[in-house]
Fold YtoQ family protein.
Amino acid sequence: MKLNVYLAGEIHTDWRDQIIAGAQGLAVTFSGPVTDHAASDDCGVAILGREEQKFWHDHKGAKLNAMRTRKALTDADIVVVRFGEQYRQWNAAFDAGFAAALGKSLIVLHGADHQHALKEIDAAALAVAETPAQVVQILRYTLEGELPQGSA
Amino acid sequence: MKLNVYLAGEIHTDWRDQIIAGAQGLAVTFSGPVTDHAASDDCGVAILGREEQKFWHDHKGAKLNAMRTRKALTDADIVVVRFGEQYRQWNAAFDAGFAAALGKSLIVLHGADHQHALKEIDAAALAVAETPAQVVQILRYTLEGELPQGSA
Amino acid sequence: MKLNVYLAGEIHTDWRDQIIAGAQGLAVTFSGPVTDHAASDDCGVAILGREEQKFWHDHKGAKLNAMRTRKALTDADIVVVRFGEQYRQWNAAFDAGFAAALGKSLIVLHGADHQHALKEIDAAALAVAETPAQVVQILRYTLEGELPQGSA
Amino acid sequence: MKLNVYLAGEIHTDWRDQIIAGAQGLAVTFSGPVTDHAASDDCGVAILGREEQKFWHDHKGAKLNAMRTRKALTDADIVVVRFGEQYRQWNAAFDAGFAAALGKSLIVLHGADHQHALKEIDAAALAVAETPAQVVQILRYTLEGELPQGSA
Amino acid sequence: MKLNVYLAGEIHTDWRDQIIAGAQGLAVTFSGPVTDHAASDDCGVAILGREEQKFWHDHKGAKLNAMRTRKALTDADIVVVRFGEQYRQWNAAFDAGFAAALGKSLIVLHGADHQHALKEIDAAALAVAETPAQVVQILRYTLEGELPQGSA
Amino acid sequence: MKLNVYLAGEIHTDWRDQIIAGAQGLAVTFSGPVTDHAASDDCGVAILGREEQKFWHDHKGAKLNAMRTRKALTDADIVVVRFGEQYRQWNAAFDAGFAAALGKSLIVLHGADHQHALKEIDAAALAVAETPAQVVQILRYTLEGELPQGSA
Amino acid sequence: MKLNVYLAGEIHTDWRDQIIAGAQGLAVTFSGPVTDHAASDDCGVAILGREEQKFWHDHKGAKLNAMRTRKALTDADIVVVRFGEQYRQWNAAFDAGFAAALGKSLIVLHGADHQHALKEIDAAALAVAETPAQVVQILRYTLEGELPQGSA
Amino acid sequence: MKLNVYLAGEIHTDWRDQIIAGAQGLAVTFSGPVTDHAASDDCGVAILGREEQKFWHDHKGAKLNAMRTRKALTDADIVVVRFGEQYRQWNAAFDAGFAAALGKSLIVLHGADHQHALKEIDAAALAVAETPAQVVQILRYTLEGELPQGSA
């Protein structure tokens, strides 16, 4: 068994790197959005031409980013969605809903303080984790049936 | 042509009532989540028994609410998602993603100040409106081909 | 909103009648398997001719019953699966798996003693209930947003 | 032609090993659930934290196991479901129903004494076998058109 | 429960009339192909203009007939396919394959002499009947759980 | 049998009226795009606000129109696509492709001079007609098995 | 581009070999049913045990063969169905219907004398060929855009 | 991440070559229709035999071409549709509609003068480009998150 895992959500901390590093040696292919915030915001106008209105500037960019996101979400077996401390992060929740409707296995990754606000998303998930290390343990268990040492 | 329209998102203002009142006489059947905030939060434990942990209290409730939401989203032709000024509203964004993945026509309803934060959701929508009255006009145009007076 | 609810599983107690009676007045259409045990066992040979072998006797009957079950499961919005105290009830679990794969909302109804043995099915459900009355309360809440009195 | 075969059900005898050994040289990739009973029961709390209630202890574990099961069932061409002599084995029947709804080719493997209780599941299957050796013969015939020697 | 039943295949005897008459009072809506042989053969050129080549004459007709057949097959819950004594009846077998791929419940209706030649189609069916009366009994049992009198 | 028929394409002649008038008494529900050319072009800005750029003016309108078109195409059993003498009519061809991918029965309606340019679309259709009267005859034959008088 | 091509139908002449030989060097993977007639007829009882009744003898065999057929049909891009001069060949027509419902590209291969009897199946096909050499030319053209020499 | 990209539409300029050359080194597999205009027009009769009527000549060819087109469109992640200055190009618009209904990411490539006539297709796209170089930049950004130099 091999797994395609999409890492959605927050792009300001190194949680993706932690998971990818922790999962070395496992049969996992990771994907994720473009995490260069400026490139992600400006890609539409950088490639397809300037816009006067901020709305259309953003619109062109969001649509370009959707090409990558839709492809990766559709190919994924498991979608991990991370909610951080800052910003609205509505696109993270949107990706979670998109993944849920496609029947993907969902892992939500967030701190305890967001528990109530994320209850609908957690309810659609197969796991709710607090740390990247737990996500790695889930992937290892799913692929190899192996639990973290000392856990029993 | 008849339309099923699901009204997702913010539950603290009367935007649903405005749309339903404005659409009187149109061939639209509206649905929406349970908007009694306390009932929505506590339904799980009220029916299925108390939980010590807040997480499971919320979990049981969120799952019960999902029965209604999934049914109504699946039956909908058009999903209107309203983002208000307060709270995280991650479930609104989750519903939008869910609806998008099902290929539903999406109308996003929000103020100008949320424009940048909602750009991915707006990019998946067929319309971005600022007022309930605009949503009514869209429904009327879609069903009857009629534009608001004075608009030409 | 109207709901189609399929009542799967145990056929030796009156739980279906309790739910149907309790849900009177709600916009629910119920369906279920043939609950006449003898007819259900013998329908195949009664209509299509005797079999020497018990295996084919059962086979013909099970296939006839599948016409009703598949139709009703496919049309259902919510599938309630009841596990009783007796018998193997593998067809109840089969129906639960079938419903889960179709994305139906699943309510599992069983006593506390079966909790461990049913954990995989409970994990696929949106609600785990112990009494028919709770199922009625779930249907009422889903349709009308109304919680049982005294529950708050 | 290559086949993905998921081996569902009973985890207390070596039937999986027998099939895998017998199928050596055939173009088959096998998958199955985690068969370490203790790990399978405790994985949820071992990775995601302790639960007071047995129900939630089991719930977290069952959901983690579902990540592997759903992925493997979805990827499978053929699902073999084994029913043994002990335990309720409702998750085996659940997997059979799930596989049937996805249109997978189903092989049920059980002793003659379970024939009546499994009639609905047998009726949804393309083969009902009594021994692992028969399953191997089915796989060989399906892939290479070759029948067991002496069978004619 | 209501059933849509498509009556496919042989058009030279009154088996459809027998089933429809026998099913009076049951919640069944029947559909079928155009059974006027001449109209069915010539509809394409009669409406869309003459063809020199018999192949294209037939082609235009077969495509027009497909509009009705595809609609009715797609809407059907149960497809009854009747094989008679004469002609090739490849379109009957084609309809059976089409219905099977759509997951419809299939009832095959044929005499004992065709048993070997129809074994693949019978194997995809939920019932193999010899008489229209048996089809009626299946529909009655499926809808009302009632077996033919004297059958027990 | 009842049919939903979507009338796509050219909006400058009265072909829709001819078909609807001719089909009176048949069990057909017709739908079509908004045929008020000015309203169709300007609906986006009339409801959702002015745009400086012609591209976004058109974009907002085309998306609003898509709500009606997608709903009606999705609900249709048969899609009639009319190509007239003027304009590019790329949206007609787009609707034809959309309908073909959804597996709808396609009738293409065009004059002989467009035969070569429309060959890919004709090849995806179940009928190629030249007049609205022929479309009516197809609908009548499909529903009632009746050919035009004098056609034999 | 690579193609999976399933070669369905008649098993008494060497048409499969001709196509496979002719297509050497093309990016095509061929599959087909078990063409050993005796093995195909007896596989069920040879592996799963004797049956008294010819019907169940055939039934068990047809179901085993369905594992291979369904897998190969589902994986195919193009399905070639050959109708020969002898036998009923209802399973060939069944496979054609199954493939059509899955949206596969269909090539029908038959002599001119079967033209009228196969008109519904030809109407569902993208090509009707008379010789294996034509099938090879279609595959070559589809993959490499190359027409047979001297054909212009 | 790897991308399958189908290049649909205009076949008289070298835009496909420009994109393929520009995308060298990227993880993209390109496909497209047969671009030899004469072969594409005559393939049907060249392989399957002459037709008297131009309509059937074209019909046979269009259907053969559909085998390649449908396969490639179905396998594609991204569909680029180019509209040139000449001809009706209805098949380009048909491919766009087909791709949109399948949920493919759509890039439309056309000059500013076609903006109004293509507004419905542009509205269904994730990007509207004017040059092949922009398409290459979109593919590079989607795969590697890299914007064209100097674009910021």
The domain at 3-33+76-144 of chain H is CATH 3.40.50.450 (Rossmann fold).
